[in-house]
């Protein structure tokens, strides 16, 4: 039930990996955490937590390398990281989405974006920038404001890759209209290393533009860690139609 593909991304200038688990069901693009690769979810308990849904044919899980996320936590310059984040988004939309649609044998199937921590940032960005391709974002313990990595070097690349910054100024048109027909789940624990305020702030930005969303607080026993996300992800994926 597992298939791995590789190609050299013309937008990133390096190899990118896409892994799929399952044969049938709604396609879910699961973004890794900051330093993760496409198989991170398999090494961690995340994939096993949703495996009954995969075996039942309810979902197919796809995952790609966190190429931009690695840069943010590696100490690379903030302008380079913001540039790479935009290139990563372009690769997701122009390379990974078509690959998923080809695998699903559909030119217009809509994808669920999911992820934890910086993976939640990528899931949210994919939904907000491409509502024509993504129908739902399942964001867990999200890190939505990356300005702490910028060292004061705020750039246009960063602005356009960061939903918490560009959404308030997004003009009326097809993108915002499409987003108003989508939904974002912002789930967060309240335990160690969690920052629920990030989810509330993101929800406020979405709500101010009439974009449907919901913040789910999971309580103080849920930390910013894999056991939390392994409880959250199957809970939400089991509900998708």
Query: Helical element count?
Result: 10
| Structural class label | alpha/beta
**Name of the CATH homologous superfamily:** Alpha/Beta hydrolase fold, catalytic domain
What's the CATH topology label? Rossmann fold
Q: How does this structure look, described?
A:
This protein has an eight-stranded mixed beta sheet with strand order 1-2-4-3-5-6-7-8, sandwiched between helices. The chain has one domain: Rossmann fold (3-Layer(aba) Sandwich). Helix content is about 40%, strand content about 20%. The model has no long low-confidence stretch (mean pLDDT about 95). The two termini are about 20 Å apart. The longest helix has 26 residues, at about 80-105. By secondary structure, the chain is α/β, with parallel strands linked by helices.
Strand-helix topology:
Blueprint (H helix, E strand, L loop, with lengths): L1 E8 L4 E8 L4 E6 L8 H4 L2 H10 L3 E6 L2 H8 L3 H26 L7 E6 L1 H12 L4 E7 L15 H6 L1 H4 L7 H6 L3 E6 L7 H13 L4 E5 L8 H12 L4
Parallel strand pairs: 3-4, 3-5, 5-6, 6-7, 7-8
Antiparallel strand pairs: 1-2, 2-4
Helix pairs in contact: 2-10, 3-4
């Amino acid at each position: 039930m597992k298939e791995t593909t590789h190609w050299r991304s013309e937008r990133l200038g390096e190899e990118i990996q896409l892994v799929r688990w399952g044969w049938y069901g709604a396609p879910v693009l699961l973004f890794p955490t900051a330093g993760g690769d496409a198989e991170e979810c398999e090494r961690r308990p995340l994939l096993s937590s949703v495996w009954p849904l995969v075996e039942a044919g309810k979902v197919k899980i796809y995952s790609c390398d966190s190429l931009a996320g690695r840069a943010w936590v590696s100490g690379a310059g903030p302008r380079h990281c913001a540039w790479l984040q935009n290139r990563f988004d372009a690769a997701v939309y122009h390379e990974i989405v078509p690959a998923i649609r080809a695998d699903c044998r559909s030119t217009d199937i809509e994808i669920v974006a999911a992820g934890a921590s910086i993976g939640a940032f990528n899931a949210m960005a994919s939904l907000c920038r491409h509502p024509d391709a993504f129908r739902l974002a399942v964001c867990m313990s999200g890190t939505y404001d990356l300005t702490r990595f910028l060292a004061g070097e705020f750039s246009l690349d960063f602005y356009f890759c960061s939903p918490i910054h560009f959404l308030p100024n997004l003009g009326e048109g097809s993108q915002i209209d499409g987003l108003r027909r989508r939904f974002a789940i912002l789930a967060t624990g309240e335990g160690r290393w969690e920052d629920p305020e990030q989810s509330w702030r993101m929800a406020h930005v979405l709500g101010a533009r009439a974009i449907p969303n919901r913040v789910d607080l999971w309580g103080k026993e849920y930390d910013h860690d894999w056991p939390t996300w392994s409880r959250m992800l199957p809970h939400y994926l089991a509900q998708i139609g």
